[in-house]
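Try this one yourself first.
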């Protein structure tokens, strides 16, 4: 065998060993990344369900606050006031316009006088 053939044979052997080592390193890194991706996906799924539960709880608490602050009722269930005045000093003017209704609630409110509400109950 010529000297050039022997050199190429050794270079091929060294390149083969290097390729095997680099391939195993690549597969190890790939497996680590895949496990991290799976862990992150489970964390995202758990966070999504937790976020939905917390959003539902916040919505319920906001509705409860809305009922507690704006829905004063007579024992018969009719509203005592059409809307509650939310006057607050902000700057140099006073705003008596109520805020928007919470998400999912109607912006209209049945407003009857006390006499009309008593007549409709009979």
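Now uncover the answer:
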């Amino acid at each position: 065998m010529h000297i050039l053939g022997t050199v190429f044979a050794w270079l091929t052997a060294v390149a083969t060993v290097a390729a095997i080592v680099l391939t195993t390193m690549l597969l190890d890194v790939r497996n680590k990344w895949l496990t991290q991706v799976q862990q992150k996906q489970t964390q995202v799924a758990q966070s999504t369900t937790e976020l939905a539960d917390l959003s539902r709880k916040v919505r319920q608490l906001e509705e409860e606050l809305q009922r507690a602050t704006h829905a004063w009722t007579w024992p018969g269930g009719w509203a005592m006031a059409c809307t509650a005045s939310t006057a607050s000093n902000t700057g140099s003017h006073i705003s008596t316009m109520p805020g928007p209704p919470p998400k999912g609630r109607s912006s209209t409110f049945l407003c009857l006088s006390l006499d009309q509400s008593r007549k409709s109950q009979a």
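Discussion: The chain has two helices and two strands. The first helix runs from residue 3 to 70.
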